[in-house]
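Whiteboard transcription, Tuesday session. T.W. wrote the C-alpha cells on the left side:
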C-alpha cells in the first residue's frame, strides 16, 4: 500500500472533494483521482461515494480512515527519527485555542523561534473538540486544549491554569440583572468549544433561558459584541482585562468548580517525540513558570 495513496485518501476524506484535496496537495485533480482509484483497486472496495457536491466516505472508507492517518504518520515519524540529530529542526505543526494564543503563547513562540530558528513551527486555532480530533487523527503534532481530556490514544500535560469569568456589557453590573433580560443572547465560539459548554451549563443551573447562540470564530469579535450590548460570554479573565480596563465590559466571578480550568498540551502517545517537540514543551513549561513567579 503506497503512502502517497494514503495521504491523498486522508486529504480527500477531510475535504469531501477531490478538487480541494488537489489544491492542498499542490497537484491536479486527475492525479488525486488516479491515487484514489489505485487505492480502491488494491483494497478491493469502494472507499468514496461520488456525487455532484463532491465525495463522501463509504462505510469501508470510514473504517479505513483512522489507520490511513496513523500509517502515514508512522512513516513520517520514522523519517523524522532518522534525521533527528543535532539542533532541533524540521516541521512542528501545532494547534491552540484562540484564547490561549491571545493570552499565553506570544512569549513562548518568541522565545522558541529565537532559540531554535531551524524548526518550521506552524500554528492553527480551533475548539478543544476539533483540536483533540486533529491530534488523534494525526493532522497535528500536538495542541493546547481545555481540560479535561479523556482519549485512549492521547497523553496530556497541564501547562496553564485559567480562571473563567462571565463577561457582560458594562451596563450589567450584577448576575441578577441577567434574569430580567428578554431573549438573552450568548456570544460564543462554534460547537466543540469547552467554554461554550461551561457557559450553557452555568446559565441552565441559574435557571436562565437564552436565545439561539451567536457564533463567531474570532475572540476580538466576541468581546466587541459583548461590549456593544449584544449578549454575554464566558472567557478567561486575562483575555478581557484590556476591555475591562477601558470600561467596555463588566466581569462576574462564577463558582470555583466552573471557573477554574486547566489548559493541557496533548499529543499522541504512540507518536515519535522529536527534539523539536521536546524543546517546545520545555520552553512552554519554563515560560509559564516565569509568568507564574511574576504574578
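and on the right, the sequence the group agreed on:
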Amino acid at each position: 500500500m503506497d503512502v502517497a495513496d494514503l495521504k491523498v485518501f486522508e486529504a480527500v476524506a477531510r475535504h469531501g472533494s477531490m478538487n480541494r484535496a488537489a489544491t492542498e496537495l499542490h497537484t491536479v485533480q486527475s492525479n488525486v483521482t488516479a491515487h484514489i482509484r489505485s487505492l480502491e483497486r488494491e483494497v478491493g472496495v469502494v472507499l468514496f461515494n461520488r456525487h455532484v457536491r463532491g465525495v463522501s466516505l463509504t462505510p469501508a472508507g470510514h473504517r479505513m480512515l483512522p489507520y490511513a492517518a496513523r500509517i502515514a504518520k508512522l512513516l513520517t515519524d520514522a523519517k523524522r527519527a532518522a534525521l533527528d540529530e543535532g539542533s532541533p529542526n524540521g516541521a512542528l505543526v501545532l494547534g491552540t485555542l484562540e484564547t490561549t494564543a491571545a493570552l499565553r503563547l506570544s512569549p513562548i513562540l518568541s522565545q522558541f523561534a529565537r532559540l531554535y530558528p531551524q524548526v518550521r513551527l506552524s500554528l492553527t486555532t480551533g475548539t478543544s473538540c476539533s483540536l483533540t480530533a486533529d491530534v488523534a487523527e494525526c493532522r497535528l503534532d500536538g495542541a493546547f486544549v481545555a481540560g479535561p481530556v479523556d482519549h485512549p490514544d492521547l497523553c496530556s500535560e497541564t501547562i496553564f491554569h485559567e480562571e473563567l469569568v462571565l463577561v457582560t456589557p458594562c451596563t450589567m453590573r450584577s448576575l441578577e440583572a441577567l434574569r430580567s433580560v428578554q431573549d438573552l443572547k450568548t456570544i460564543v465560539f462554534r460547537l466543540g468549544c469547552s467554554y461554550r459548554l461551561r457557559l450553557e451549563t452555568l446559565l441552565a443551573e441559574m435557571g436562565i433561558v437564552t436565545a439561539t447562540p451567536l457564533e463567531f470564530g474570532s475572540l476580538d469579535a466576541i468581546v466587541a459584541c459583548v461590549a456593544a450590548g449584544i449578549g454575554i460570554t464566558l472567557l478567561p479573565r486575562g483575555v478581557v482585562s484590556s476591555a475591562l480596563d477601558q470600561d467596555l465590559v463588566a466581569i462576574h466571578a462564577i463558582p470555583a468548580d466552573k471557573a477554574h480550568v486547566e489548559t493541557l498540551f496533548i499529543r499522541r502517545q504512540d507518536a515519535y517525540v522529536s527534539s523539536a517537540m521536546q524543546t517546545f514543551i520545555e520552553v512552554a513549561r519554563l515560560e509559564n513558570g516565569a509568568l507564574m513567579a511574576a504574578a
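Someone added at the bottom: The first helix runs from residue 3 to 15.
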